[in-house]
Amino acid sequence: MNVSERKFSFKQLLTDIRSLMRDAWANASIFALAAIIIHNLYEVKYFVLMIGIALGYAFGFALNDYFDKDYDLMDDTKAKRNFFIRSGFKNYQAMFFILLIIFILYLIFQKFGILGIVFLVISLFVLWAYSAEPIRLKSRPGLDLLTHSVFLDTYPYFLVLVLSQSKIINIDYFVMSLTILLSMSEQLENQIRDYAIDKKTDINFSVKFGVNTSVKLLKILVLCSIAIIVLVIINEIVPFHFYPIALIIAPWLLYKLVRTEKRVRSEKLNRYTSIGALSYLIILVIMLKF
Fold it and tell me: For the chain, how far is it from start to end, CA to CA, in angstroms?
C-alpha cells in the first residue's frame, strides 16, 4: 500500500508519536536544563517549563510535517518520514491534535504571566512561518539557516533565561554562541542528507548554493564550535562539572568534521549523544541539588 493511502491506526499513531518525541525533545531538554543548572533555577515551575519546551519542540516537528505534506508526498522516502502521512491523520484529526497541544502549552506558559504568553505567541508564529505558505522560511535560502541558528538549540536556553528573568552572565554568551553554530550545522546536515530529494521538490540553502558549499560551511561551523569549547575550558569560563559534556559530544563533532556529501549522517550517533548529554545533566541536577 502506498504510504499516502494508509488508513488511520491508533496503534500506529502511538508508534509514530514515540518516534517523533524521540527525535525532537532531547536537544530542547538539554539546553533548557543547562540554563536551569547554570542559574540555579531548581523550582518545580522551571522543570515544568522544560517539559513544556520539549513538548513544544516535538509539536514543532509535527507541525512542520503537517505543512510539508504536499511536498513530502512527491517523494516516497520523505513521505515515510512524515508524521501525518505515516499516521494516516485526516485534516480534522490533525487540527484537534494541534489545538490540544497548543492548549497544554498555554497552561504551562501562562504560569509566567504576560511574558510567558507573549513568548508562546512568538514561538507559535515562528513554527507556522517556518513551514507554512506564504512565508515558509525553510524555502528561503539563508533565512532557513538563520531561523535554525536562532530557534533550534539556542531558543530553549534563551527562553528559560527570559522567563526566569535571570541576569545574563559570561557563560550564557558562550552557550548561546555555541548553540547558534551547532544549530546551523545540524540544519546543514539535514539539507546535505536530503539534497537529492529537495532539489526536485523544494529550495533551500544547499539546493541554491550547492551541496559542496554546504559541506565546507558545515566543517567551518564545527571548527569554530571546537575552538569555542577549547577556549572556554582553557580560560575556565564554565564550572568543572560541565567538562564531561565536551567529552560526550566530541565523537559527534568529529564525525561532522570528517563527513562528506556522500556520507550519510549517523542518526544513532546523534541520538546516543543527546541521550548521554541529557542523562549526565539529570545526574548533575541530582548531585547539585541533593
Answer: 54
Domains of the chain: 8-289 (1.10.600)
**pLDDT tens for each residue of the chain, 290 residues long:** 444 444 555 555 555 555 555 556 889 999 999 999 999 999 999 999 999 999 999 888 888 888 888 777 777 777 777 777 776 667 787 788 889 999 999 999 999 999 999 999 999 999 999 999 999 999 999 999 999 999 999 999 999 999 999 999 999 999 999 999 999 999 999 899 889 888 888 899 999 999 999 999 999 999 999 999 999 999 988 889 999 999 999 999 998 888 766 666 778 888 899 999 999 999 999 999 87
DSSP assignment string, 262-278: TS---HHHHHHHHHHHH
C-alpha to C-alpha distances, 271 to 25, 152, 223, 224, 243, nearest whole angstrom: 11, 16, 21, 22, 20
Distance CA 33, CA 58 (A): 16
SS3 content of the chain, % helix, strand, coil (to 5): 80, 0, 20
Q: What is the rounded CA–CA span in Å between residue 130 and residue 1? A: 31
